[in-house]
Amino acid sequence: MPAVKSSRIPSYTTVRNVIADFGLIMALIFGGCCSNALTLELTTKQLPASGTLLTLAQFVATTVIALVGEVEMRSVRGCYVPCLKRPGVPLRRWLIQVILYYLTSILNNSAFAYNIPMSVHIVFRSGGMLVNMFLGYTIDGKRYSLLQLMSVCLVTIGVVVATLSAALPSGTHNTSSNGDYMFGVLLLSMALLTSGAMGIFQERTYTKYGRQHWHEALFYSHLFSLPLFAFQSRGLSAQIADANATPRAPLPMCPICTKMGLTVPSYYVNLTLNVLTQLLCINGVNRLTSRVSSLSVSLVLVVRKAVSLVISVVLLNRQTGSAGLWSGAAAVMIGTIGYTYGGSKRRVPHAKSA
């Protein structure tokens, strides 16, 4: 009797490819994103007020890398020349998103100049669910489950506890420092608002034109943001001057340059590492998003943020962290998982009836 081949059993090659693919994704996310948080903290510690320069470098690098996927060869009078692909989404929609994305990035990076620790930065940026829920309810008329409502309350409490835990170093009452810290918190709060508005607008764009245009969104949101930096040319010039004045350091991973005695301002070494790791992080998150559910993505990113928090507090700053910070971070992470899980459960009945 001939053997019956089962098409349901994946071959060894298929399993190996899947493992290799997800291994690469996890390496990009945990290696790239965690390293990005580390290099961001090193960069902002060296020059806390360099938020505009940092954002500009990130936007230029992302634009150049994303350009590769948006160029095609076209025949012009018998000669093939590189041209931009025809956008799948009207450019006017990207222009609105550009302004929101630019403001979000500037506000987040500028907050480091006001005594905001990286640990609070990580926790605070994870707390945008309250803003997203409010905007979704008032603008899009969305409704949320009891689990989602409870999860948002838990996240909000966690953000407040973690933020207040770092408001003042123990035993000090410096009014000026406390005022700077609260202004930094205000900047992060404004960033949550612009990020929430951008998320709703982006969701409407993807609903109308399809999610396959994420790479196009990545390219145009960064490309169209570059001219906006002209409005901050004076501050940008001052930040470049400060960066040029940092102690000089040898170029990393360049033995020949070291032997020749070539050095650069040390700020640019950290800045370059931050930009490169950000590109790896973006690549990993986009790969993961295209392969698994939103719940799985949220779970992975929550674990990634937890690892980044431990690296920042324990390994880089050689601290144990306060009880308020860790309890607040735990509340944010548990609430994030609950919110995402509650959202996926609400979508299941609609998927079945379709």
UniProtKB/TrEMBL annotation:
GO terms for molecular function: UDP-N-acetylglucosamine transmembrane transporter activity; UDP-xylose transmembrane transporter activity. The keyword Membrane applies. It comes from the Eukaryota. It is found in: Endomembrane system. It is a multi-pass membrane protein. GO terms for cellular component: endoplasmic reticulum membrane; Golgi membrane. Keywords: Membrane, Sugar transport, Transmembrane, Transmembrane helix, Transport. Its main location: membrane. The chain crosses the membrane at residues 18-38, 50-68, 94-116, 146-169, 181-201, 297-317, 323-342. InterPro entries: SCL35B1-4/HUT1. This is UDP-xylose and UDP-N-acetylglucosamine transporter. It comes from Malassezia restricta (strain ATCC 96810 / NBRC 103918 / CBS 7877) (Seborrheic dermatitis infection agent). The lineage of its organism: Eukaryota, Fungi, Dikarya, Basidiomycota, Ustilaginomycotina.
